[in-house]
Hints:
The protein contains nine helices and 16 strands. It is of the alpha/beta class. Helix 6 (218-227) runs parallel beside helix 7 (256-262). The termini are far apart. The longest helix is centred in the C-terminal third of the chain and has 22 residues, at 351-372. The strands form three sheets. It has a twelve-stranded parallel β-sheet with strand order 1-2-3-4-5-6-7-8-9-11-13-14. It has a two-stranded parallel sheet with strand order 10-12.
Amino acid sequence: MLIHSIAYEGGFYEGCGFDLEHMSPNLPINLLYYVAMNQGTHLLPRVRAIRWAAPQDCELHLLIPLISPTVRELDIDVSGCTSEASSRLLRALNYILPPDLRTFNFEVDLETTPTEDVTAIIRQQDSLRTLKLPSCVLDPGMFKPGLQVLEAYCTVVSGLIPQQLLDTLADTCPRLCDIRMTFSSDCNLRFDSIRPLLRCSQLIKVDLEYPGQWNLEESDIKAMGNAWPRLEALNLCCRRDYPGLESSHGIPIGMLPSFARYLSPKLRKLALFLNTTNVPLPPYEATPFCNLEFFAVGNSPLDTELAIFSVVAYLDAVLPTTVNHIYSKSSFPRHSGSVFQPFMPRYRENPAWGSVEKLLSKLRQEFRGDAAK
């Protein structure tokens, strides 16, 4: 029997799987190299995809013997492990990984991220198509010409401002079609900071998280529409519970029609951190979102009962009936998941936006009932 893929979710099962009590957390690394290389013999000689989730240090080294020259997809989650153990694993992998990986995903707690060890691996991988490093600081050494999917963390601690990094990214990765970037608060992000991404004309999903204020103009939305004709998902949304967030940091809700007017008609998912301080009157004839089916507002503030009714009236005029849920769930700053991923129980939903959703649904049901008479 030939095994082509394997997944291990350590620590999530009881009474089965590996017996951690009988494993040594300090297995000599030279032995691991020998088992992994093993003179051309491998435990899984045809394995192509490995998913390894190890929340404890003593589980990390179990991955090493499973690596073979046929591996093309490697997805590792070491959240909960120490930085020392994660670094040891990465240094070992750097010796034994084949040089033609197509996918490399590495998830670790932000506080323990061994970015240098991750970068050392990526520098040797010139065939990468998918690279997901949600807690690793973005580095130009991670950019590969064939890269199509990129997820990383951006901070000025790296020594480069976001615009410089994204400028290099746009020049190096012309085939990029899916990007998720989390920017730290010290980035002082403006639309000009992400303007280099407008040169990536193949983008289908743009997912950008930032805890500060977006200064977005209508001309910027138009520029995105012109640059990304294939765009299907856009997130300019602060979904996490960062301290100090204010409504003024958001995109005015009155700009929603501009997203419908200028972005690609292929747009199916839209997530925005909204400013609902001044809700305009509903437009008489709004440009419709042709295919929108997902709408998220994250932890956009919505405080007063009057604002809730104003928002309901406005969204009724702007959002298509295909949007039957308003996602307002947010997570803690450390969590790296995308707003477009399935929501987990750890996310909290804003009750005010829950009221908006219920009132909007009721309003539309009543309209359909009246129309049927």
